[in-house]
Amino acid sequence: MKQHVIVLMDISYSMQPHAKNMIDGLNKFVDTLRARSDHTNILFSAMLFSDKRSYLCREVPVDDLSPFTVYNIPEFGLTHLYDAIGELFDEWTNETREQHHLFIITDGDDNGSKKVTKQQATQMCDKMVLERNWTVTHCDVDINKLGSFNVQKVVYDIDNLEELLGNLSI
Q1: Cβ(48)–Cβ(80) under 8 Å?
Q2: 166 with 32: CB under 8 angstroms?
């Protein structure tokens, strides 16, 4: 079965000073995935979010990815974490061809979501883990953003973002 790794990456204003570490960490994560014996079965997506959302890449085989650069990052904005979770799950809920691994990378509180509440985002994460067999890992400097017991949690120091991303695994 194919593995689909999705990184939901915060590009809010507070992440702007860490853009290089973020990109270097993403590249290290891709290198880690390429080193796996089953790397030909791994697809990679990176959705960037602030008050807008865009894909850095979408369902690309890890062997076909070019290195990411800071020039790939669109403008930074406010943190709309819960809306980004809602949009991502809306897009991928019915996808059953792959095993999905979602990594949520953020450093701050949601400060503007208009469509999805914290409770709804938590319920969506729980549903995807329990009913769809996703793995969801929430990486944050303050881990209290999502109240789910089904979501794996990783606390990190924002200055070690590159190390965090480089050490992620599926």
Answers
A1: no
A2: yes
Torsion angle defined by CA atoms of residues 22, 141, 116 and 95, in that order, rounded to the nearest 10 degrees? 50
Using DSSP, state whether 5 is helix, strand or coil. strand
Q: Are 110 and 8 in contact (CB under 8 A)?
A: no
**pTM for the structure as a whole:** 0.94
pLDDT > 70: percent of the chain = 99
How many other CB atoms sit within 10 Å of the CB of residue 44?
A: 24
- DSSP assignment of 46-101 equals EEEESSSEEEEEEEEEGGGPPPP-GGG----B---HHHHHHHHHHHHTT--SEEEE
pLDDT of residue 167: 87
Rounded CA-CA distance 26/19 in Å is: 11
> Residue 41 pLDDT > 90, yes or no?
yes
d(C-alpha 128, C-alpha 147), whole Å: 15
User: C-alpha angle with apex 161: 149 to 106, nearest 5 degrees?
Assistant: 45
